[in-house]
Backbone:
């Protein structure tokens, strides 16, 4: 999940909430949405490895 922050950058959050905190994990902050989407694809790829 990508959200735009007040300062104009984009942050990638995990799709599931952390049960311990009730919040989503921060998976990185990026200056452009394209960079955030690229990293999201990389995260999905490595989730399927193994």
Residues:
């Amino acid at each position: 999940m990508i959200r735009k922050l007040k300062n104009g950058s984009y942050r990638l959050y995990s799709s599931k909430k952390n049960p311990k905190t009730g919040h989503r994990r921060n998976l990185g902050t990026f200056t452009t949405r394209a960079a955030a989407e690229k990293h999201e694809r990389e995260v999905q790829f490595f989730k399927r490895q193994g």
User: Anything to note?
Assistant: The chain has a mean pLDDT of 95. The two ends are 23 Å apart (CA to CA). Residues 33-47 form the longest helix (15 residues). Strands lie at 2-4, 10-17, 24-30.
